[in-house]
Design brief:
Radius of gyration: 14 Å
Oligomer: single chain
Number of helices: 1
Helix content: under 10%
Order of helices and strands: EHEEEEEEE
Strand content: over 45%
Largest sheet: 5 strands, antiparallel
């Protein structure tokens, strides 16, 4: 499974529920028990049952930066999701899910993107790093 933007993100952007210039975003880790579903998963509550659990990891993830650029000649929008890490972590994760923190609970936190690591990554008492990722979508 490749990394992707959740289908609902465009709808949430159009309705003003996501503002990349003003909102706060988090990256949370998911285990390989998660089955990616870009069409039906729209809120953090849809995926929280598969969130990674372990020492050094904060449930809900860590805050990240999200930047958006427009490439008119290529008819693309380029979304970059900042690097994040958890120190002294003991856990295993396959994905990072990006969501907007609404402040009104996980049922109200819109999903933005899913980053697929390609395989489960694990660490024991070490830093668990997630590099910055870029996803390009046609406009």
């Amino acid at each position: 499974m490749a990394s992707f933007i959740y289908n609902s993100a465009a709808f949430d952007e159009a309705n003003g529920d996501i503002d990349y210039g003003a909102d706060t975003f988090y990256g949370m880790l998911l285990t390989d028990a998660y089955t990616p579903d870009r069409q039906n998963h729209t809120r953090r509550s849809d995926i929280s049952a598969e969130e990674a659990i372990g020492a050094g990891y904060t449930l809900g993830g860590n805050q990240i930066t999200v930047t958006v650029a427009q490439d008119n000649p290529a008819n693309q929008t380029i979304m970059t999701f900042g690097a994040v890490s958890w120190s002294a972590a003991t856990l295993a994760a396959r994905y990072e899910a990006i969501y907007k923190a609404s402040g009104a609970g996980e049922a109200n936190d819109p999903l933005v993107a899913l980053i697929d690591f390609g395989a489960t990554q694990s660490t024991s008492g070490q830093t668990f790093p997630v590099a910055a990722s870029t996803i390009t979508k046609q406009t």
